[in-house]
Structures are given as C-alpha cells and as structure tokens.
Amino acid sequence: MSQSTNTFSAWYRPMLARHAGEEHRAASALELFFDLCFVVAVAQASSAFEHEVVSGRPGHGLLGYALVFFAIWWAWMNFTWFASAYDTDDVPYRLLTLVQIVGALVMAAGIAEALEHGDFTVITWGYVVMRLAMVSQWLRAAVTDRSGRRSASRYAVGILVLQVGWLARLALSADGGTVTFAVLAALELTVPVWAERADGTAWHPGHIAERYGLFTLIVLGESVMAAGLAVGAALDTHQDLGAVLPVALGGLLTVFALWWMYFAQDAPRRLRTQRTAMWWGYGHYVVFAAAAAVGAALAVNVAHAAGSRALTDVQAAAVYTVPVALFVLCVWLLHRRAAQLSTAGNVLPPAAALAVLCSTVTPFPVPATGVIVALLIAGSVVLVRREDSDA
To answer: Cα–Cα 20 to 30 A to 340, which of 102, 131, 299, 323?
Structure first.
C-alpha cells in the first residue's frame, strides 16, 4: 500500500498551493537546471549586443537588446513565481518545465537574427512555446487548487490571449514592430496585476529571494567570462597587454563590487506584501539586463583598448558606465525603504551612480568605475558598522 502510494505521488501530485511560510524552502535541482539553460539565452543576447556595438550600431543594438531581454526575463520570472507557489515536482510538472527549456533554447537560437536584422520570428516561436507550457501549468492549478482557482484561471486566460497577439505580430510590417512589441509587453505586465487581485498566489519570500539571487550570480558570472574571453582574444592578436589589462582589472573590480552590493541586502525582508513583490520582480528587469550588459560592454572596452576604433572613446565608455549606474540605482531603489537606511546611506548609491556616469569623460573610465563602486561598498560597510555600534 505504501509503495503504491509513493509510486502514485512520484507520477502525479495534486497541484495545491504550497505554504508561504514553509521552512527550509530552497531552489530545486530542476529550477537550477532551468536557470542554467536560460543563461544560454542571456549569453546570446549579451554576445549579439556586443557585436552590434562593435559594428558601430550601438543605438540599434541597445533597442534590440532591450526587446530580446524582456522576453528572456519575463518568461524566466513567470516560471519562478509559479514554481514558488505550485512546484509539485511530479512527472507532468517536470515535463512541462522541460518544454519551457526547449522554448528558451529556440529563443536563444534566434537572438542574433533579431538584433542584427530585426527578425523576431524564431524568438517569438520560442517564447510562445514557453508561455503555452505555462498556460498548461496554470490550468492544472486552476483545476486542483480551489483556493487559488480564480487567480490561476486569470493567468491562463491572459497568457493564452497574448500569445495569439505575439503570433499575429509576425504578420505585421517591420515599421510597426517596435510599437506592437511595446503594447504586447505592457499587456503582459498587467496580467499578474489583474490575476493577483482575485485570490492571489502563495509565493515563498525566502525562496523567491534565493531564486533571484542565483540568477544574479549567473548573470554576473557571464560578465566575468566575457572579460576573460575578451582579454584572451586581445592577446591572441598580439595586442599590448599594458593597454588591455587595466580595463580587464577595472571590469573585474566593478563586477565584484556589484556582487557585494546586491547580496548585502536582506531580500526576504523586502518581500513582505504583494505590492512590494511586484516592484521587486519588475525592477529586476533592469538589474538583470544591466548586469548582462556590463559583460558585453566590458568586452567592447577591451577591444577598444586593444585598438578597435568602431566607437569613439566617449561612446565606448558610455556603453559601460550606463549599465553599471543603472544596476547601482535599481538595487538601491528596490531595497531603500525596507533597509531603513540613514541619510548618508541613501546618498551614497545615487552619488556613486552619478560619479560613474561622470567617469565616462575621463581617460580611464573602466578602472575609474571600478574604483567608484568599490568605494561605494567600502562606505556602505563603514556606515553599517557605525550604525551597529550606535545601536
């Protein structure tokens, strides 16, 4: 009897909401595998963005990167919050998650074409595959979880209708592509707001914070890898190491400081209400996109230091300093209220972001940026220690 029950539960478990206060809740092996496969899409987006910038089309590359990264981030985020509420880890759940991974890989295959030629056909089909698998998950939750049925049904209906819109967009001319993308993306953002107003979903604050932290680690790791590959490419072409090394070291210092800044925060304390959770989830579009762009921008600046003249000095510097400043500002804004920072603590991050932007016009913008964000971390550590001593 016991063996039969265990076999049944391994194959199928009723999809009921998990308890938001569940102890020792951690990311599952499937979630980690999901993240790892999604990083392929992040790496492709970063690489394609770098290619566009090096080819002298930074504006075109930035727009394409922003659009592509929305699809990556939004599909990842929707799965993450769903899993926090309804992860059953049975066979149907695993299979549908693997279908989403296939969609992510299809999307990754179309990223270069989307950024270079504005052709979003492959990306759209990959995205739709992921989202239709998500519809199936929500429908399953609507059938078995009575307490959250209205929210789950709204998610399923909203996502399904919008996938029709994404496919219909492929028939439009390129002239209206950006506008329709913006409209559909805005509608995608409204689906969780509308759905959560019904019954709400029982996401786990600690689990969500861990999942976002793990993905941030992976994206920052992509930046470190980009720096290593760029330096290797420069050395393979027998470029002067003295010109390349300061840029690479400045980039590594920046990434180390960004990591420190992100993980110095008490994220579960930030995730107290549905409203703050929405801001948290949506705000991480900037965090993730900026972190991935730092890697691409670092590679661009290494190539620039090695002699590439596709961009002016100011353009190459701006490609790097802007995402760093956005990362600093967004992390600060996401945690500012919950962290209850002192006046000095609230001044340091925006001041550092401004200093980073000003370093664009300095002779050595990448090393200067690294020093600035490192000083931000040092100042924050000193302030926290002083506040602890006063308490």
So the answer is: 323
